[in-house]
Amino acid sequence: MTTTSLLSADQLRQQIRVRLAQGRLPILAGIYKTHQGTGRPCLVCRREISRTQLEHQVGGGDVVVLIAHEACYALWREESKTRRDSSI
Asked: Taking CA 22 as the corner, what is the angle to CA 16 and CA 27, rounded to the nearest 5 degrees?
């Protein structure tokens, strides 16, 4: 998987695991929508999501919106599922 981060997919995945464990990144469980990038930073890799890229928007509560690049979202979703499954 190619990411837009300066990190490799494996490095980014490890960073996601650490941030999920520390509670600095929420575990995904909700619905998302996808649209063209808005120039805001990705919650996962912190790099800008340009207008030429897809942006995944995830609800993080009543009014909080979390956004991520497509590749970052995929890794975040996978690691969230692994974390949820391991806590059952």
From this structure: 55
Q: Are 24 and 76 in contact (CB under 8 A)?
A: no
> CATH no. for residue 77?
3.30.1740
- How do residues 44-60 score in pLDDT, each as one tens digit? 999 999 999 999 998 76
Note whether residue 4 is domain-resident.
no
pTM of the model: 0.83
Report DSSP state, residue 25.
S
pLDDT digits (tens, 9 = 90+) for 21-41: 999 999 987 778 899 999 999
Range(s) of the domain holding residue 56: 9-83
